[in-house]
Specification:
The protein is mainly α and 78 residues long. The chain is built from 4 helices and no strands. The protein is elongated and about 70 Å long. The relative contact order is 0.11. The model has no long low-confidence stretch (mean pLDDT 91).
């Protein structure tokens, strides 16, 4: 489930005081985790649902030079 869908589900749950068990089934988690999501939503709003590494490159990403070297060596074996 995407971050946006989780956010909308929790927002609707908090606003309507809906059923936590049904929300847990929809998101695919436990009621206990629903309580954590509700608390995070109330404290931080939509920002709580965004992943912490959003917008960052992975730590194991190769530099452009290293990537080009690999491509050159693969395309033109000696």
């Amino acid at each position: 489930m995407s971050e946006q869908e989780k956010y909308e589900t929790i927002k609707k749950l908090v606003e309507s005081k809906g059923n936590k068990t049904r929300a847990a089934a929809k998101i695919g988690c436990s009621r206990r985790h629903i309580n954590r999501l509700i608390k995070g939503y109330q404290e931080n709003g939509k920002a709580f649902f965004l992943h912490g590494n959003r917008g960052r490159k992975p730590a194991h990403t190769l530099s452009a030079d290293a990537r080009q070297t690999v491509v050159d060596l693969t395309a033109n074996p000696k």
